[in-house]
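Milestone 3.1: sequence recovery, worked example.
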């Protein structure tokens, strides 16, 4: 029974991971999405693709290949770009918020988000989730 429970738990964790973000081969990305991406970011090199919920995400740049991350809908509509930034460039109120509400969890990565309307936000990754803050560092949501 213990083995069965362990297998069910493992399968559940793997399923959640797969649902959150799924690596894709370029051939599996719709042509219209690739064209929209190439038009908006013609200098992007060594692009990797993921399926994030129902959207398509392209990653490129930097040592990890993820200094830039851009999201398009299946209809090739631009959603947002996240540009990696050093954690110390987040608004000053972000670290105290994380310390208070997430038991002092370490911020692993940070990014400056620009959505389709030009609105800027910040993203702080902790414990496998993204925390979204406005330009002043006020918490908006966990994603």
């Amino acid at each position: 029974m213990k083995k069965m429970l362990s297998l069910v738990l493992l399968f559940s964790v793997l399923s959640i991971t797969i649902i959150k973000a799924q690596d894709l081969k370029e051939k599996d990305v719709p042509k219209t999405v690739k064209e929209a991406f190439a038009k908006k970011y013609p200098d992007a090199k060594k692009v990797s693709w993921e399926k994030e919920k129902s959207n398509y995400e392209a990653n490129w740049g930097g040592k990890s290949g993820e200094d830039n991350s851009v999201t398009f809908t299946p209809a090739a509509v631009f959603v947002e770009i996240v540009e990696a930034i050093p954690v110390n460039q987040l608004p000053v109120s972000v670290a105290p918020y994380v310390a208070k509400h997430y038991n002092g969890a370490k911020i692993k990565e940070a990014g400056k988000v620009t959505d389709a309307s030009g609105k800027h936000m910040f993203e702080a990754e902790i414990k496998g989730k993204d925390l979204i803050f406005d330009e002043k560092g006020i918490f908006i949501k966990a994603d």
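Confidence is low (pLDDT under 50) at residues 1-19. Strands lie at 21-24, 48-52, 55-60, 68-72, 78-85, 109-115, 120-126, 129-133, 139-142.
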